[in-house]
Amino acid sequence: MNNLLIILFLLTLISCKKQELESAVILRKEILKPRIEPEGKPTAIDSTLLISFNDKILTSFYKSTEYRTVWQSQKKRKIILEELLKSDEEGLNPEDYKVKTLLDLEKKLNTLDSLALAKYDVLLTSSLQKYISHLTNGKLDPRKLYKNWDLKENQIDINKTVAQLLSTDSLLFKIEQLKPNHIVYQRLKKALKLINTFPKDNFKNLKFGREFSPNDSTAAITEIKKRLIFWKDLQPTDSLTPVYDKEMVLAVKKFQIRHGLAPDGIIREGTIASLNFSKEQRIQQIIANLERWKWYPKEMGNEYVIINIPDYKLTLVKNKDTLRTHRVIVGRAKRKTPILSSKLTQVVFNPTWTVPPTILREDVIPAILKNRRYLSQSNIKVYDSNGRIVSPYEWQLSQAKTYRYVQSPGTFNSLGMVKIIFPNRFSVYLHDTNHRDYFDKIDRSLSSGCVRVDNPLELTEYVLNDSVNWNLEKITETLQNEKTKFVKINKDISLHILYWTAWSEKDKLIFRDDIYNLDANLYSKLRN
Length: 528
What we know:
Layout: H1 2-32, H2 56-64, H3 74-85, H4 99-107, H5 114-137, H6 142-145, E1 149-150, H7 158-167, H8 171-178, H9 183-195, H10 219-230, H11 246-258, H12 269-275, H13 279-295, E2 303-308, E3 313-318, E4 321-331, E5 339-343, E6 346-349, E7 353-354, H14 357-370, H15 374-377, E8 380-383, E9 389-390, E10 404-407, E11 418-421, E12 430-431, E13 445-447, E14 451-453, H16 456-464, H17 472-480, E15 485-488, E16 494-498, E17 502-505, E18 508-511, H18 519-527
Parallel strand pairs: 1-5, 2-16, 4-13, 12-14
Antiparallel strand pairs: 2-3, 3-4, 4-14, 5-16, 6-11, 6-15, 7-10, 8-9, 8-10, 11-12, 17-18
Helix pairs in contact: 3-4, 3-5, 4-5, 5-7, 9-13, 13-18
């Protein structure tokens, strides 16, 4: 009996301790929950008012204020209203934040009753929360729009951020800090500001019939000159002649450079296509790119490699300084290079190449069916499921997709002499190529998704950061033995493969071809 009482006592004690522990946990959560103390003389808010907004974050915010208004400060309201009003400078739409309604309520503030004051306060907070969300993560979610965009959401606690804005004496500065701070975003904002200074345009589309070269004379030259004058590549004159003169040649070259075209002064289909873009289309393109830059990481890293797919360029940045650039070849439209952020982890010298499923299905199998010697000519060995080599004459179409196809190392290898690895779910990487002549092409969307890098050995030497063991001389020796070698990258270097088609440089608008046809569709979704 005594033993039974002792056991009951212990169980009761344990139960009480457990309840105390649970209570302590609950209490701790309540203590950690932010409580906002409104300044001035707040107005009570009926909690049912929040139901119409159907917004859990908004409701949670006012729960922390004990359902009281928070925007008693006229100075802070003014700053927020001005910020929402000029949200178009960030490529956003002021109409999304009910700016006209808010301004109207602000004008009538002294005549508003307590219910109207509460509605104004809640609407202002709701608009500010939406604006913060759009600034930090964009209006749309790229993970829902694109299958091959693998970007992490920029984390932000919106209610905590609003609470900080309420308590700060530097409200405008704090809002500025929420905006993307990368130089490309700043250049995009500058581009939007620049293009808005241009007059209205009402040009009809130019039709491409033939190439135009210096000294040609035709009526179409006059129309092209008008566009060059509009875009400020050609100085305006009192009279326009139909002759392709020296001044026009220089203007065409300027235009071509700004649009990533071959600056040869020859007016081909690509130049005509770029000339046919209207001012409104270019504005929409800039706004689409501003949205993308809100999706991208806010912190790129102290040292990082950034690749702009439409510009066919890799840039190495350290402490915000550009250390080196490389031309790149990216995936063609049917096999797009994915958008992602990762870290460089490993270099492979003399890599083998295992043919991926898409290339196997669309390229290799059709080539074998045409010519069995394709395998030996490409130095590709075929292995069955047991690891046994299958000769070209044993190869069977019915078993083709079960085989493993491996190209041996060497100068003929599709990956070239080196590849640089970074973790990603698409199995893409940076690599050399056995077609280095492709880097001289203007349109370099030619690969099957991976990124080919011009002068990759110089980049490899830099990322390995070992002047004794992995200088160019040592790298060359390793490549000459034609044996595959893996080397870990010890430097902390981030990688960002991104996509943008517009920016500005030295008060000039810069555009690139939208090679994956993303801009117009994205703008349409932003405004609908």
